[in-house]
């Protein structure tokens, strides 16, 4: 690849473009904690917010600028005096401040949003960059909706920005309309035609409306971009921005093709992604590249068999390189002999063919009612225990006590023993889980908890899925009911029962 240099700057905008999208609003303290995590991850620029949009955003940018070291801190402004002055004040104590000014350039935005002519847009850009340069040396200029802008005008606008002192030229595909070939070509064109192109950094800012944000960012790099704007977990306006973890790992895994490096400490990717999920309360989907629960998990027999022979058959990177402790061979409906035998061997059981066939058949039968077969399930089957053991819900009720909720539960076991307990919590789920923990005498920290509805009208049901990771093993449970609270209680008890069986099974020595 013919490129000016081989270091790609990672500009993280989780705290600005990410935070400005529905569902991702963060408190000041959360933003500051996340900015520290981004600096530790090794991003080059943290876009901390839009100071003139609210006092809360101003104060978060100001604290991040004062406290976070090791990355440039950027703040966003329209080509508007008040916005730029607010950025300058908020960034006063930053070690390496950047003011990022933007104005729309496409005909659609000029006519409908700004009601400005080409000349007026250029005048505003000159005003914005000039004012920003009075405060800081590092000024980024963005032509919003650049991808849908006439090329001659885009070059004219960027020429004006460079002449007035912009040091980074950002080319946003604001509405995620580009395709990789087009964006690669656009960057080549701009680098060839903007005056002073060699003295500035070209940057790509791709949105994911067509699911192409990462592919387009990679193509922009091939076209000469040396900064990419992205967010952890791909959060951002509408379908989001390019996902940092995907972009960085694509550049790392395919270094031979792209020939470029980033400064990211990739083993911190998973923790950073999880921190963001904890802060926003929004989990990534299981099959999300790099950081989803399935990213290094294999359930189907053919893949598991291949993995056991040589992990490169089904994995293109080491899980440890992005922060996972190891790959996982998850036993489920699609698993085969190789994986079941291997897991049993690891648990200390070498079965003959007939015994293995029996356990596999019984394990597959379990998957009619559960997604995965845990070590505890396997050990139970090996011990010949197929019974319906464990706690069941006899009754439950919740009382709203104003600030708190109180849950009453009654559990029964197959021998008819009953136990009643109650507990209070900040909300119904916290109260319910606390009461269940007291009644079953089991407590665990949830790794994930999701509830969604299935069906509509009279058939509508809630499905709850929980998982907890204990002693290196994942225990998961699922519950369905017309009532989502009851579905959650059933799922919680399934995890608790598995955990109890696993403790019991650790004492079972051999195939019964
Ligand atoms: C593609 C992006 O991600 S752009 C960044 C998006 N981020 C945000 O919007 C941050 C949060 N926004 C806010 O808090 C508010 O919108 C504010 C404080 C910025 C502005 O609020 P208001 O003054 O009430 O204006 P409002 O949001 O209704 O409209 C935006 C105004 O900015 C103008 N404008 C938009 N972009 C620019 C720009 N780059 N340069 C100059 N003016 C601009 C619009 O033409 C409109 O002007 P008008 O009020 O004269 O019609
Ligand atoms: C302000 C710019 C960089 C932006 O967020 C966009 O165009 O999507």
TrEMBL record:
It comes from the Bacteria. Transmembrane segments: none annotated. Mn(2+) binds at residues 17, 205, 207, 241. Pathway: Amino-acid biosynthesis; L-leucine biosynthesis; L-leucine from 3-methyl-2-oxobutanoate: step 1/4. The keyword Acyltransferase applies. Its cofactor is Mn(2+). Its EC number is 2.3.3.13. Residues 392-512 are annotated as: Regulatory domain. CDD domains: DRE_TIM_IPMS. It catalyses: 3-methyl-2-oxobutanoate + acetyl-CoA + H2O = (2S)-2-isopropylmalate + CoA + H(+). It is an enzyme of class 2 (transferase). It holds the Pfam family HMGL-like. Residues 8-270 form the Pyruvate carboxyltransferase domain. The keyword Transcription regulation does not apply. One of its GO terms (molecular function) is 2-isopropylmalate synthase activity. InterPro entries: 2-IPM_HCS-like, 2-isopropylmalate_synth_dimer, AIPM/Hcit_synth_CS, Aldolase_TIM, LeuA/HCS_post-cat, LeuA_allosteric_dom_sf, LeuA_bact_synth, PYR_CT. SUPFAM superfamilies: 2-isopropylmalate synthase LeuA, allosteric (dimerisation) domain, Aldolase. Keywords: Acyltransferase, Amino-acid biosynthesis, Branched-chain amino acid biosynthesis, Cytoplasm, Leucine biosynthesis, Manganese, Metal-binding, Transferase. Belongs to the alpha-IPM synthase/homocitrate synthase family. LeuA type 1 subfamily. Homodimer. Catalyzes the condensation of the acetyl group of acetyl-CoA with 3-methyl-2-oxobutanoate (2-ketoisovalerate) to form 3-carboxy-3-hydroxy-4-methylpentanoate (2-isopropylmalate). This is 2-isopropylmalate synthase. It comes from Thermomonas beijingensis. The gene is leuA.
């Amino acid at each position: 690849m013919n490129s000016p240099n081989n270091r790609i700057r990672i500009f993280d905008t989780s705290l600005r473009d990410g935070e400005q999208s529905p569902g991702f609003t963060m408190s000041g303290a959360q933003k500051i904690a996340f900015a520290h995590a981004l600096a530790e991850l090794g991003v080059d620029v943290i876009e901390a917010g839009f100071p003139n949009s609210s006092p809360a955003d101003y104060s978060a940018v100001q604290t991040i600028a004062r406290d976070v070291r090791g990355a440039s801190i950027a703040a966003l402004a329209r080509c508007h005096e008040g916005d730029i002055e607010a950025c300058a004040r908020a960034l006063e104590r930053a070690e390496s401040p950047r003011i990022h000014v933007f104005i729309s350039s496409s005909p659609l935005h000029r006519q409908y949003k700004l009601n400005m002519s080409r000349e007026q847009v250029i005048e505003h850009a000159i005003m914005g960059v000039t004012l920003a340069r009075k405060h800081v040396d590092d000024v980024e200029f963005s032509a919003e909706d650049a991808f849908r802008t006439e090329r001659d005008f885009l070059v004219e606008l960027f020429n004006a920005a460079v002449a007035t002192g912009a040091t980074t030229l950002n080319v946003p595909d604001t509405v995620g309309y580009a395709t990789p070939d087009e964006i690669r070509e656009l960057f080549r064109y701009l680098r060839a035609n903007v005056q002073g192109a060699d003295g500035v950094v070209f940057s790509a800012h791709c949105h994911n409306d067509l699911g192409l944000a990462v592919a387009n960012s990679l193509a922009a790099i091939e076209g000469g971009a040396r900064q990419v704007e992205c967010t952890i977990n791909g959060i951002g306006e509408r379908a989001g921005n390019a996902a940092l973890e995907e972009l960085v790992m694509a550049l790392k895994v395919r270094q031979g093709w792209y020939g470029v490096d980033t400064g990211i400490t990739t083993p911190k990717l998973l923790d950073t992604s999880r921190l963001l999920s904890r802060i926003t309360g929004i989990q990534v989907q299981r099959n999300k590249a790099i950081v989803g629960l399935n990213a290094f998990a294999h359930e189907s027999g053919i893949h598991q068999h291949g993995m056991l022979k040589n992990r490169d058959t089904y994995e293109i990177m080491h899980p440890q390189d992005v922060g996972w402790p190891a790959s996982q061979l998850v036993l489920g409906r699609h698993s085969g002999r190789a994986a079941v035998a291997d897991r049993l061997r690891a648990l200390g059981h070498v079965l003959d063919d007939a015994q293995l066939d029996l356990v596999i058949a019984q394990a597959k039968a379990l998957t009619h009612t559960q997604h995965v077969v845990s070590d505890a399930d396997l050990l139970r089957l090996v011990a010949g225990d197929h019974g319906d053991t464990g706690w069941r819900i006899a009754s439950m009720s919740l009382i709203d006590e104003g600030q708190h909720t109180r849950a009453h539960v009654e559990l029964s076991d197959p021998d008819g023993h009953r136990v009643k307990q109650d507990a209070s919590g900040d909300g119904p789920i916290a109260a319910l889980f606390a009461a269940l923990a007291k009644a079953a005498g089991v407590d665990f920290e949830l790794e994930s908890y999701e509830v969604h509805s299935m069906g509509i009208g009279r058939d509508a049901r809630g499905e709850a899925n929980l998982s907890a990771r204990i002693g290196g093993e994942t225990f998961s449970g699922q519950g369905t009911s017309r009532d989502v609270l009851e579905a959650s209680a059933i799922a919680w008890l399934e995890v608790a029962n598995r955990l109890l069986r696993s403790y019991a099974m650790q004492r079972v020595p051999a195939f019964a």
